[in-house]
Amino acid sequence: MRKSLLRLLAAALAGALLSASLFGCAPAGDTQSLPQPSAAPAKPSAGPEQTAPPQPETPQQAELSRAVAGRLAGMTLREKVGQMFFVRPDALDPSQTQQQINDADADGVTALTDAMSAVLADYPVGGVVLFGKNITGPQQLTDLTGQLHAAMDTPLLIAVDEEGGAVARLANHPAFDLPRYESAAAVAAAGGAQAVQQMYAEIGGYLDSYGIDLDFAPDADVNTNPDNPVIGTRAFSSDPQTAAGMVAAAVEGFADTGVLCCVKHYPGHGDTAEDSHKSLAATHKTWAELAACELLPFQAGVRAGADLIMAGHIAAPEVTGEDTPASLSPQLMGSIRTGLGFSGAIVTDSLAMEGITGLYSAGEAAVLAVQAGADILLMPNGLAEAFDAVVAAVEEGTIPESRIDESAARVLALKEKRGLI
Fold first, then answer.
1. Catalytic residue among 93, 221, 239, 349, which?
2. Which of 44, 54, 96, 359 has the greatest number of CB atoms lying within 10 Å of its CB?
3. Mean pLDDT value across residues 281-301
């Protein structure tokens, strides 16, 4: 049945995008637009007016499972806030400076230590993200994920970036004999949706075998800007229709393995000229233009069952009227819920990237991300500062505790789906 739905989705997208521009994006009037973010400045409509769909249920409105409700009810404020933080394992090592933590070439944590367990007791984070420097070989990785899963009463969710191609922490590691792919774009061009689904089923399968729960993949960007310095062939295509079909196929591939997946980087990094690792990126498209192109793969991913959406450090001034990145923007975060109809977990891109650190302190960024609607704060540039700032904001009444409960419930639901609770 799910494959039939995918075929229907592909047909619908094809009908909506018969008229394509030079880079594959349809004129705004030729496609069905998504609801405008409610807080965005009013702009002339490029197409027929649309009625916004009802707001998706929050975990508090919907019926929580007994396992999730029971865990949430028994948690302290710090434990609930902790579910929202996913960090590098190095951030749990008190001997490392933040510079060492962020440095891909510095020595990394490869086993859980007593000192790290003590940090976890004070800062009970919800997840850990592994990088190449945390991996030395298959047995070590299996041992490390086992240690991390057993370290907390509510097990950590263990994540990695394994897109296939240039971004593949395991497959590109010399100690592993795993399938290697030229790029997402190359696989899509050579074999279409079937090859993409098989690719991500293989990736999800080997991640599962090593105890990894979540892959920050697939890339749902549309590679429309030839000057883009960071996306390129990580995206499936420069055509939104093609990219949408491939994103749906990738999500289907992960579903076959039980590994959670995340579509990224909302609202689309493919048309930017900046690398958000180094500075704030920006798209200068209107909402109607985004809806006609960049947002189509995200829609397809949501319909196919994506578990998470990653909000990028990408400003959209023609939508919001300001330069706040999507990862900290209530308007753009809200459009994920109301526009895409997504009720799963929203994760920020790494908060240690210069697109954030050049503008905000670790504490400021964390609080703003929560206020904007993020459920997971990814790798803040200072765990203690960011964590304590969110706790203080709740205690002072700046952030309602019910807001923390919403996000903690979504993270716990991911853990339940993965079989960790």
1. 349
2. 96
3. 94
The b-or-e profile of 255-280 (16+ CB within 10 A means b, else e) is bebebbbbbbbbbbbbbbebbbeeeb
Sign of the alpha-carbon dihedral angle for 231, 234, 237, 242: negative
Spatial distance between the Cα atoms of 293 and 244, rounded to a whole number of angstroms: 10
Q: Which amino acid is at 203?
A: I
* Cβ neighbours around 341 below 10 Å, total: 16
Residue corresponding to tokens 């909000």: 311
277 is known as an active-site residue: yes
Is 349 catalytic? The answer is yes
Closest CA to 241 of 21, 2, 1, 5: 21
- CB-based contacts of 178: which residues, under 8 Å, 6+ apart? 170, 171, 206
User: Would you say residue 87 has pLDDT above 80?
Assistant: yes
All residues at 6 or more sequence positions from 395 whose CB lies less than 8 Å from its CB, including other chains: 77
Is the pTM value of this prediction over 0.85? yes
The token pair that represents 392 in the structure block: 């203080």
Strand pairing report for 167-168 and 162-164: antiparallel
Phi, psi of 200 (to 5 degrees): -80, -20
- Name the one residue in this structure whose structure tokens are 């394509």: 20
Q: Could you give the CA distance from residue 199 to residue 204 in angstroms, rounded to a whole number? A: 9
Q: What percent of the chain has pLDDT over 70?
A: 84
The model's confidence at residue 53, banded by pLDDT at 50, 70 and 90, is: very low
Helix or strand (DSSP H, E) at 188: helix 184-209
DSSP 8-state symbol, 350: P
**Element (DSSP H or E) covering residue 384:** helix 383-395
Amino acid at 112: L
Q: Is the CA virtual torsion 79, 161, 10, 45 positive or negative?
A: positive
Tokens of 18: 């018969």
Mean pLDDT score of the chain: 88
- Res 3: pLDDT: 42
pLDDT of residue 191: 98
Band (pLDDT 50/70/90 cuts) for residue 58 is very low
281-282 and 214-215 strand pairing: unpaired
Instruction: Name the active-site residue from 277, 375, 388, 405.
Output: 277
What CA–CA distance (Å, rounded) separates 314 from 326? 5
Which tens digit of pLDDT belongs to each residue from 210-220?
A: 999 999 999 99
